Amino acid sequence: MSQHFLLSAQARTMSLRQIFALTDDAAFDYFRHSRWGNGEEVTCPECGSIARHYFISTRKQWRCRDCKHTFSVTSGTLFAFHKLPLKIYLAAVAIYTNAVKGTSALQLSRDLDVQYKTAFVLAHKIRESLMVKRDETALDGEVEMDGAYVNGHVRPANKKADRVDRRLAENQNPDKRCVFVMRSRDNDGPGAKRTLTFVMKQENQADVKKLAGRFVKKGSIVFADEANAYDPLHAYYDTRRVNHQVEYRSDAGATSNQAESFFSRFRRMQYGQMHRFGTLYLDNYANEAAYREDNRRMSNGEMFGDIVVKCAASRTSRDFCGYWQGNRRLAERLVS
Q: Residue ranges of the ISXO2-like transposase domain (predicted)?
């Protein structure tokens, strides 16, 4: 029996020991390379000028030769205004990368020996980079769709006489949300090619039709379960359904096992690490699970480099820059 990829040496091309062994100059050079490549030219975040700007070696900063703006290797990125050494931020990305089911802010704060508030914002900034830089081109081929509910548990009262019917809408948790997933199958190998996730109040025909029209190419084959939210898709796609009350795979081959595979990782993240997802940032958590599922065959070194590049290419966060000073997102992101 062949060895699983994740158990092989090819899956381990980066370690925390390597990151913490970096000097400050090496960490600076790595982040600079991730942001601007190998050349001598860098980009001014203020005016966009690309040139060999004047480098102030004593401060590790550049001065733009066009607009005279002074900037650093993190200016205009998610790590702008950073107060910790760059090596700590690279270590945070490495810890985040190696946690296959995600990592909590509490664990990250202990691993890096920083305050919980620092770790909380840092982890969310990394998730935001994955959301900002995700590929949102339309899925094609065979596309599976499904939805799963989170934050729906209502604790029953102690005495039976005081308990309510939790199936009724008025007795359900107001934070209950549906995470909706669309996955394109990889017919050349096991698993799926790409995953897109969205958050809605509940599975409904209007939102499903809207998302399918935007993110699924015409001519694709859609696989879904028997929920009535997917009924309108028959008019636009070759839609094949499976009744999960009877079977996981129909005799005709219809199945949504790849969507269920995503929810398996998502639930392990929920129960094993996060325990509860806040509705404001549920979309980022779902997208993180999608990223990990899509890149499960990527070595941890490749994934680490990819995430650092995404962080370097993402603009300064509007949701988490000054988060603990009150600058927070005011509304959740729902499909509707």
A: 138-294
At 204, give phi and psi (nearest 5°).
-145, 160
Q: Give the dihedral of Cα atoms 60, 66, 67, 71; nearest 10 deg.
A: -20
Question: 60 — alpha (psi -120 to 50), left (phi > 0) or beta?
Answer: left
Distance CA 127, CA 289 (A): 10
Enter the tokens of residue 166: 């939790």
SS (H, E, C) 167-211: CCHHHCCCCCEEEEEEEEECCCCCCEEEEEEEEECCCCHHHHHHH
68, part of any domain: yes
Neighbouring C-beta atoms of residue 205, cutoff 10 Å: 14
Looking at residue 190, what is its pLDDT?
72
Contact 280, 74 (CB under 8 A): no
Beta strands in the chain (DSSP E): 42-43, 50-51, 54-56, 61-63, 70-71, 142-150, 177-185, 192-200, 221-225, 238-242
What is residue 275's predicted lDDT score, i.e. its pLDDT?
Answer: 86
The predicted pLDDT at position 1 comes to 61
Low-confidence ranges of the chain (pLDDT < 50): none
Local structure of residue 275 (DSSP, 8 states): S
Cross-sheet strand order for the sheet of 238-242: 192-200, 177-185, 142-150, 221-225, 238-242
Q: What is the pLDDT of residue 188?
A: 77
- Amino acid code (one letter) for 29: D
Cα gap 180→176, rounded to integer Å: 13
Residues 170 and 282 in one domain: yes
Nearest to 336 by CA among 217, 205, 234, 220: 205
Full residue range of the structural domain in which residue 34 is found: 8-133
Tell me if 84 is assigned to some domain. Answer: yes
Name residue 315's beta-bridge partners.
Answer: none
End-to-end CA distance of the chain: 48
Structure-block tokens of residue 224: 């879904």
Same domain, 174 and 214: yes
Query: Which position has the token pair 């066009």?
Result: 66
pLDDT at 52: 94
